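In this supplementary section we document a worked example of the pipeline. Step one takes a protein sequence of length 416 as its only input; no multiple sequence alignment statistics are reported here. Step two produces a three-dimensional model, which step three serialises into structure tokens for compact storage. The input and output of this example are shown verbatim.
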Amino acid sequence: MNAEILCIGTEILLGDIVNTNGAYLARELAALGIDIFHQSVVGDNAQRLKDSLELALSRADMVITTGGLGPTYDDLTKKTVADYFGIGMETHAPSVKKIEALYKTLGREMTPNNLLQAEVPKGATVFFNDTGFAPGVAIEKAGKTVIMLPGPPNEMRPMFINKVVPYLQKKSGATIRSKTIHIFGMGESQVEDTLRDMMTSYQNPTIAPYAKQGEVQLRISAKAGTADAADTLIQPAIDQIKQRLGPVVYGVDIGSLQNAVVLALKQKNLTVATAESCTGGALSRAITDIPGSSAVFECGVCTYSNAMKQKLLNVSRKTLDQCGTVSAETAQEMAKGARAISGADIGIGVTGIAGPDGGSDEKPVGLVYMSIDSGFFCETKKFLLSRGHKNERDFIRNYATLHALSFILTAVNNKK
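The serialised model returned by step three reads:
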């Protein structure tokens, strides 16, 4: 089966918002073994939408649309698709009930156009919207399928995973399962070179790489009669990839590096405290963005000035004068200071030059030192994070944060 993605909205067409829906659906459909040969974007215009739909259906078995399901005059998707197939409209009662309940709770009078969200093509499969109000819809006719999903990603993504994927699996008569391997510390090209034979030869499961900022993900997908059978196909591939790549694999279906850190700290019953300079509190925020992090995070100290490094973290004046603010020695004393004032099991210190100013031949922009202090693991690392581009400040800070998270994870894994 092959599909085409058609994202609807003038705001996407004009670049006012980024089309994340297209990228998300392409990845998810590929994981389901559905080929994607075309993607399109069309504005909120009925005739142009109809023309785009007709073109898409001429070259694809299935078209998935996002956007245009809301209550305003330019939300045209459902009516346009229904007209294309010669189908009338009807009201989806559960969606009406949800909309009416909201306005009753708010104590506000509902305008009639809100109920347009609950209108769906007659006889269509309806996907109830758990996080919004406009339901999704699937129409099957003359060997073609059109699936219409909401535009807001927080509505579209859960609807796709929870409603559309089971619908597609039922149509195919098979269960498709996917697992994601998370990699940090090895670039996409090196991962691909190491695993090229597996990526090109494996058919079931398949292995597909996805690059994110600072890390690589591998999606392993298998099709079988049951979920357990698909998982059985996937596991040997995961084991072999872990064996080949080694410690750069930090988890499977773990979500993010900071999530892996929090889970690992909980499993070992450990706590961490951070002392940051160049990252400006980004490391503390990354950890505390994870629900439940209060069980493992003691405190974060952001000390930009040398005076505060001395006062709050007990970094010595001699170290700052002789070695400099950005040095292995300062990072070490920052880590010890964070641990001392918090009582945490692990202290980490991060100091560096994020730029654009402040660099020198001896200490260039992008130079970052990190140090871990604990009763079971003490180590200091030097990083050169600049890639020689302009305006790298955010990149350096973000990449330093990822390295710091990975460093904490290394420390935790060294706890016996």
